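Each field is set out underneath.
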Amino acid sequence: MKTKKSDLVLYGIAFISAMLAILLVYGYVQSRVDQAEQRVEVKTVTVVEKPELMSMVVATRDLYRGEQIEVDDITILNVPTEGVVVKGVIDDPQKVVGHVVNQTVYAGEWIIDRKIGSEEISYKTGLSSLLEEGKRAVRVPVTPETGLLGVLRPSDHVDVISVFESADGKRMISRTVLENIEVLMVGDQASYSRPSTEESARQSHSKSMVTLNVDTTQAEHLALAMNVGAVHLALRNATDVKIINSNGVNVKVMESSPQNAPKYAPKPKREVIQIMQGGQVQEVIRQ
């Protein structure tokens, strides 16, 4: 059967129509895809290079001057190397454990070589490493009333007040004999761990020793003060380094000295009046 010319024309028209329909559908679908892509927020992913890390020895609690560092007092922290700008940072725990702290190190602080002793030493010999040339350590027996027990800590500064009888034995004298003296140690050990029992805690707070950092002349004054009378410690502000050079006071001066006026005027009395209205009580303050 021969194909007629008219049939070929119809086939050609049908083919062209099909192609046009496909192109129209493809164009419509592509336009919708483009619109959808425009509405979708494009997120930019930034690739950051992993920084080089360095191990640091860090204090897990406050370490005060004179304390010996134990294993539980430190931990290892990894930090980016580029963030380490301090010299002398220690990265090996073995270089820290057993050493004595020369300067206070607070919890979370990096431990650097300038803040600890150069050698691993026991506590008994460690205290001497805190003393500069010409300095001496003197222990003073104190009680909570005379030595601020429970308040003092190593690196604090105190004044030493001596209460003694006059040379003629006629009056008692109180006088500041030493000023701005550094506290090296409180108690029998430079440790801030709590006593294991309530009984040991009570005994440690009833009477103890405070070790002071003095020179030879100050040590002589302190030894004499402890032998002729009672010694009291007065805590100083950390920023107060002024030396007063007080002449002291005796009972006669205390009796004759005028009473100082109060720093603030007393508040006036106020009367509170209760008023009952409709079953409710209202308080009115009358000046």
The longest helix spans residues 5-39. Helices lie at 5-39, 123-126, 144-147, 198-206, 216-228, 251-256. The mean pLDDT is 79. Residues 183 and 192 are 15 Å apart (CA to CA).
